[in-house]
Amino acid sequence: MSKGLLIILSGPSGVGKGTIRDAFFNNPELNLAFSISMTTRSKRAGEEHGREYFFVSKEEFKQAIEDGKLLEYAEFVGNYYGTPLEYVEKLRNEGKNVLLEIEVEGAKQVIQKCPDALSIFIVPPSLDELERRIRGRATEPEEIVQQRLAKAAKELTLSNQYRYVVCNDNVQAAAAIITTIIKSHM
Ligand code: 5GP
What we know:
The chain is an alpha/beta fold. It has 7 helices and 9 strands.
């Protein structure tokens, strides 16, 4: 059995990564597994420990870094996020194509460590549309919304480090393009 692909999916906060992922993830032809990250941010309503993230304290996160347990990690709007290395490797060795949904700094680390990684960046149709989507979520205070918007503008300038850039003006169309990209690398 050949080792599974490492797929990086990035895009600014609010671009609709989760919705697009839901639209292609369960396609059995793609044989995908999701890498569940570790984060120090608090749980949002509806999220579960071990499903969206492993929610940990700053101390636990620091320990994981020191123990070399993370493939990559980054700080994002005041919290840490990282990819557990062992879990990803286990899945890839089982032949699964592993999807990392991570931000740009972490993606840069993975691209350096694993040049074969298949990297995909999702862009919004416009910045105005992105702002509308971030505000539509309305789960966070204005200060955090502002930080996420500033971060989004900065992240968009880094899209050129990815192998593919896909525009999310239509969820089904974006998911279909990503499906084609993944299949072409399998
Ligand atoms: P959120 O707080 O909205 O769930 O995630 C914030 C950002 O962190 C998103 O861009 C998300 O893709 C990214 N992220 C989630 N997990 C990881 C991770 O393990 N590493 C890195 N570098 N970014 C992550």
